Amino acid sequence: MSEAMLCDSTAIPNDNDKKALDFIENVTIHTDEVQAQVLSEILTRNANTEYLKRYDLNGCTDRESFKNLLPVITYEDLQPDIVRIANGDKSPILSSHQVSEFLTSSGTSAGERKLMPTIEEELDRRTLLYSLLMPVMSQYIKGLDKGKGMYFLFIKSETKTPGGLVARPVLTSYYKSQHFREKPFDPYNVYTSPMEAILCPDSHQSMYAQLLCGLAQNKQVLRAGAVFASGLLRAIHFLEQHWRSLCEDIRMGSPSEEDVTNPSVRKAVMNIMSPNPELADLMERECSKESWEGIIKRLWPNTKYLEVIVTGAMAQYIPTLDFYSGGLPQLCTMYASSECYFGLNLYPLSKPWEVSYTIMPNMGYFEFLPIRRDNHNEHTDNQPQLVELADVKVGEEYELVVTTYAGLYRYRVGDVLRVTGFHNSAPQFHFVCRKNVMLSIDSDKTDEVELQNAMDKATKHLESYGARVIEYTSYADVSSIPGHYVLFWELNNATHVEVPAEVLQQCCLTVEESLNSVYRQGRSADKSIAPLEIKIVESGTFEELMDYTLSRGASINQYKVPRCVKFAPIVELLNSRVTASYFSPNCPKWTPVRTDWETCKSF
Ligand code: AMP
Predict the structure, then answer these.
(1) Using omega within 30 degrees of 0 as the cis cutoff, is the peptide bond preceding 482 cis?
(2) Which of 11, 197, 346, 416 is an S-S bond match for 209, by CB 3.0 to 4.6 Å?
């Protein structure tokens, strides 16, 4: 699709759009003033919290005192306070407003999701940011009010803390809120998925019903998406597995009794469907073709673009999305987290690798830790001096530090951002990476230490066979859906011949059991990650890997075996030396109930 078809320079914003665009202009023109005001508001209302008193802020609301007195912290620093709140302490510890619930981040601490306290009012702030997305988009793409969005949105399981607060992911919290469920009709935000299907806790039924509704309204779909690229690909994979049954349902005009059992979901889907043999024929024709290239365009012919996050770790899915969508534009609209919703992409038509997000100065108070890289392009220790939102420099990289209305003060988010330019006086950031994340398939994030610990546990199975892993590396294989972790192991003297296959499969499972709960949930409940694979490579493979790396200019003195590989020629080299491969035979254990509540009590 050419940009000319997407862009409509004559598009006149309607009243609501104009208000939203004016709002963006206003806050980005006055970035520094808005930031000062946000900080002052946060510190004023929370002056009597235990946290601010602990650091002797004494009611000061200015930047100087704030910066001099409050430390820059990580989750671990905050954990004792979080645990007290989780255990039911209702005193104003971090925020003067009651903590309404915990948002469970996909970032983990000691193997469990981090718990981010939030307050009711934050929902308004999140809703405000969402309300800016379509006005921005409508400046570039016309007619989005003439059709629907097919978005695959899901809720995840929630749990209660010992003190009775709900703990759940931020999107589950948002989708279940009145802000989402009861939003007034807006022709720019009409979705194919009925609310009942989005809010259905059974992920199979939810996906089945959402796909069925998307198919039933195929001609009306103007945009398709999910939050992350992996989510949209999961929907396509589900379609690959279930298209025959979905096709039958389209023909008959009602959802299969086996796949959609929840009465309210059934009713909602029935309301949308009627027998459509013509569409069923189209599905049958298209889905039974050998290649699924361009399947999105073939089944949903009016789709103008995909809306999915393909920045950061999700960039690995760009080629696969290109394949299935027949090259539809992949638009990234928003940058957000459980801690705080940060901002949006003001130029949504930009190519995935050019996307920059403008942090909205009204969402929280933002500071930036400059990042220095050493000669090997590795991050080195951060400089202690934090920089203000309005003062960051184009081309520099920073770690994002937030202070929120909900009671996080100078909290390191762990995201590395590079400044690409400014919109008015608000900087625009390219998302570089999340610090320390080595492997990621969906929302899981595995770092080097976690992988090493998991390896230590798994390799114990080899001991009684006299086998040892002399070198290893890892790889996130997304060539099939869902993707999976691969470990390349070189064993001493190729002893693997004597290690029974079941033992190596057990090693796979032990690695999985040892990884964090987000990984295990992805494997067991969400099925968004496929079984982990161990590939045994020939003796000498890692020496070859070193030779290859040195031939590309690395210094022999500084050579370290990479614990994760991404570069295609290296992955090819490793794959060409594989002598055997083993998969995890079962799903690792996972329950929504956290294993650390007991630890919480002991704080
Ligand atoms: P969570 O902690 O589970 O709420 O996930 C939030 C994290 O997801 C952020 O801190 C980022 O690392 C990542 N993330 C969110 N939005 C984007 C985006 N647009 N591009 C890249 N990464 C993102």
Answers:
(1) yes
(2) 197
